[in-house]
Amino acid sequence: MKNICKNMKTLLPGLKPLKAPSGLSKKKQEDMLYKMCAIRAFDSRVKELWMASEIYGLAHAYIGAEAIAVGACEAITKDDFISSTHRGHGHTLAKGADTKAMMAELFGKYEGLNRGKGGSMHIADVDIGMLGATGIVGSGMPHALGAALSSDVLDNGTVAICFHGDGGTNQGVWHETINMAAAWNLPVIFLIENNQYAIATKLEWVTKEQDLYKRAIGYGIEGVQVDGFNVFDVYSAVKKAVDKARKGGGPTLIEARYLRILGHFVADDQAYRDQGEISDCWTADPVERLKEYLVDSETFSQAKVDKIEQTAKDEIEAAVEYARNECTEPPADTLYDDIYANGEVII
Ligand SMILES: Cc1ncc(C[n+]2csc(CCOP(=O)(O)OP(=O)(O)O)c2C)c(N)n1
Q: In this structure, which residue's CA is closest to atom 17 in ligand 1?
């Protein structure tokens, strides 16, 4: 593995070479690489399209965090649930959303996943258990709790994963949700994506205990810290937590440590940040680390890895072309559709 800077070592104490868990099939490893490459390509194009004013609404790239969403979603099934954040493209793609319908949504087109009304920050795909991205920090917590409560009431064995940032952990709803999940022993995994920043605020400025997983002790549940740049680490920790939750073992708090590589939103130039720290982040690039591991471990040839990456890029490019050229603007008379569950609008 390439040199990891001192700062990185301090922030990511668990950073070590990748190693696939024993028994993880080649197919699963290929899926992981494909999805991580697709997320990277999707958000790289979103950044360009946003800067060119081709897509609407604020957009937050998931670049650098791909290992977290993919590692976690590979450990659950289509019937399970996830709740998301303002940085939700990676979660949605990892859960299996259609790339064309997703890109159309960001273009504000009628063929989009949410008919163009959700956009980047409120994208949802309930059919695959993706309960929704949300612009309100911390508000995905009760969504996941509700899904876990329904699993308990219906006794159907499903689990819910709640993705959220380190900034979200200082919201009141975070504490209320985990306390209730713990007290009622619900099948939910709280997955903190700790990238050390909430917009331009460093975690250390606002939180005394930097190891956020340790908060689990206060709720009487298990807490685990993993390297968020390492897809296999995330996968193994989430799989263990999911297996436990399905057997009635209750919630787990997982802190996936990574560093935000890009700005808070796609046009943020991070002038408030040490530029050396940003370039150092790229040495831990989760996509490159996975590609390197798969070739070095002779799981796949370099040609196969290149092909997987190119196929993912091509899929995203086809999604851009579809959203740009084949989709339509929402008709004006659909403005009030899909706002209330029963379709009634009271003005
Ligand atoms: C309740 C609430 N407070 C403040 C904001 C403004 N805001 C948007 S994103 C953000 C930072 C979130 O940081 P974090 O949860 O760590 O997620 P990250 O962006 O790092 O992935 C803030 C403060 C908001 N959207 N909602």
A: 165
The alpha carbons of the chain give a radius of gyration, in whole angstroms, of 20
Residue having the nearest C-alpha atom to atom 19 of ligand 1: 198
Please give the number of the atom of ligand 1 that sits closest to the Cα of 203: 16
CA of 334 to the centre of ligand 1 (A): 31
Whole-number Å distance, alpha carbon 207 to ligand 1 midpoint, is 15
Tell the residue nearest (CA) to atom 13 of ligand 1.
Answer: 198
| Tokens at 132, concatenated | 């929704």
Q: What is the pTM of this model?
A: 0.96
CA–CA separation, 246 vs 73, rounded Å? 15
Alpha carbon distance 92, 86 (integer Å): 11
SS3 339: coil
Pocket of ligand 1 (CB under 6 A): 86-87, 135-137, 165-168, 193, 195, 197-199, 260, 264
Long-range contacts of 289-298 (CB under 8 A, 24+ apart): 289/1, 289/18, 289/229, 289/230, 290/18, 290/32, 290/33, 290/36, 290/67, 290/231, 291/33, 292/1, 292/18, 293/17, 293/18, 293/19, 293/20, 294/29, 294/33, 297/19, 297/20
Q: What is the pLDDT of residues 1-54, one digit of tens each?
A: 444 445 566 666 556 889 999 999 999 999 999 999 999 999 999 999 999 999
Q: Tokens standing for 53?
A: 């004013």
Q: What is the pLDDT of residues 180-238, one digit of tens each?
A: 999 999 999 999 999 999 999 999 999 999 999 999 999 999 999 999 999 999 999 99
Structure tokens at 290: 């996975």
Residue nearest to atom 11 of ligand 1 (CA): 198
Going by alpha carbons, the residue nearest to atom 12 of ligand 1 is 198
The atom of ligand 1 lying closest to the CA of 194 is 16
Domains of the chain: 25-320 (3.40.50.970)
Strand (E) or helix (H) holding 193: strand 188-194
